[in-house]
Write a structure and sequence with these properties.
It comes from Peptostreptococcus equinus. This protein is 14% helix and 34% strand. Strands 4-3-2-1-5 form a 5-stranded antiparallel beta sheet. The N and C termini lie far apart (34 Å).
């Protein structure tokens, strides 16, 4: 299983960047959630089920996407080069 760590940066397959705030647990279902912040627009903080966050891109729905995974870890340098131009 892929490891997601607080403070890391990720690129969504649609080319937007995000920072991991934390990994949380749903209080009712105990489902593991990734809490992350958009690094664009209003810097919205969102939650997504962990399994969905680490899943592979649906090739039937998005056949032309280059990334293997929905979110892929990137170094901060890539974030700087692409959002702080």
């Amino acid at each position: 299983m892929r490891e997601i760590i607080k403070g890391q940066y990720y690129r969504h397959f649609k080319k937007k960047y995000y920072k991991i705030i934390c990994i949380a647990k749903h209080t009712e279902s105990n489902e593991k959630l990734v809490i992350y912040q958009a690094l664009y627009g209003n810097n919205t903080i969102s939650a997504r089920p962990f399994d969905m966050f680490v899943s592979k891109v649906d090739r039937n729905k998005y056949p032309d996407v280059e990334q293997e995974y929905r979110f892929e870890k990137v170094e901060y340098k890539e974030v700087q080069d692409n959002i702080y131009k």
